[in-house]
Amino acid sequence: MNVEVINTGTEILLGEITNTHLAFLAQQLFPLGLRVQRQVAVPDGDAIRDALSESFTRAEIVLATGGLGPTTDDLTREITAELLGLDLVYHPAVMQGIKERFSRRGIKVTDRVQRQAFVPKGAMILENPNGTAPGLYFNLEHAQKKSSSVTRHLFLLPGPPRELQPMFDDAVIPILKTILPAGAVPECRVYRVVGLGESNVEAMIGAKLLAIEGLELGYCARSGEVDLRVIGSKAVVASAGKVILKALKKYIVSADNQSLEQVVVQSLAARGETIAVAESCTGGFLANRITNVPGASRVFVEGFITYANKAKSRALKVAPRLIAANGAVSAEVAAEMAEGARAAAKVDYALSTTGIAGPGGGTEQKPVGTVFIALASKHMATVVNKHAFPTDRENFKWLVTQASLDMLRKRLA
Q: Potential cystine with 16: which of 11, 81, 327, 364 (Cβ 3.0-4.6 Å)?
C-alpha cells in the first residue's frame, strides 16, 4: 500500500527544529511491510490544503503530523474537515482530558485550548497521554467510492516527537495491522562498513549483489563509514549476506545498524575488560562517544584530556624530553600517552589521540590533518597508527575517533 507523509510546521522550514518524524515513521512502518513512497514538509496555512489534496490522489495511507494544537496557526484539523466535507463536532470527553491535564500542571484553561476538543465528524480519536491535542484517524473506505481520492486511511498526528512516537506505537500500529493485506514482509539488513569508501565497497561487491534476483541494493555514505543496505525476501537477503561477509568481513562493524562504539562497548563487556582514553586533538570526543552507549559504565573507567604538553607530562607521565625531541604530535608521544593512561587507570586497554586539527599549526613534515593513534593493552605491545584527515575541525575529530574505535574493534576481534 502506498504511504505518504506530510510534515507541517513553518518552524521546520525555517530550520528552527530538526524534522525527525520521517526517520521514526519509516523505521516503524517497514516491519509491517509498508514503505514511505513520498514525504513533504510544508509551512502552516494553505500549503497544508495543497499537500493533503495532492496526497489524496496518490497514496492509500497518508500520515500528517503537526497543526493540531490550540493556536491560530494550527490548521490541520480544520483544513482536513473542509477537504473531506465534515463538520467539526465538540467532544466533551476530549475537553475533560485537557482540563485534567492542565489541572495537574496548575495551568489555566483558555478559550483557545477548547479548539482541540472539536473533532471532524466520524473521525476516531487517538488518545494523547503526553499532550493536549488528540490524534485522529479517518477510515475513508466508503468515501473513496464517492470521489476520485485514492486515500483510504488518513492519520493526523501531533507534531512534538514525545507525543507522536508513543501515539504511533500504541494507537496507529494496531490500526494498521487490521487494514494491511496478508503477505510476506520484506527483510532489510544494513551492514555498517568502516575503513572503505562508498565507491570501494561497490567495486568489491556491487556486481555480485546485482546478480542476485529479487534483491534491492543501496549505499549510504557518511563520514568514516558506509552503510550497505539489502532488501528482499528472507532467502534473498540471506544469500546476499553470504556474499557480503565473504568479501567485506574484516570491514564490517555490524549487520544490525549498531554503531561502532556500541560494538566496541559490547565486545569489551562480553570479555569483562576495561578501557581508558587519553585525548589531545579530540578533546574528549572519544570518551563522549563511548559513554553515550548504555552500559558503558561496565567498561569505561577513566578519560584524560591532556591538551597541553605539560598536562601530558603531569597526568600521563610523558617525558618532556620526548615531546621536545619528537613533538607532541608523534608516534612516540602517542604511545607514551596510551601507556600512561593504561597504567594510571589500571585498565586492559587504552587509546590515545594526538594530532593537528587545523586550520593552523601544520608543517611540511606534519601537515594539518596529521594524527597519531595509539592502542596499549596488557595482551600485546603498544601499536601506533598514523593517519591524515585534512578536513574541518569537527569532521577531523569524528574521523579520528572512528579510526580509534575501529583500531580497538579489530584488536578485540
A: 11
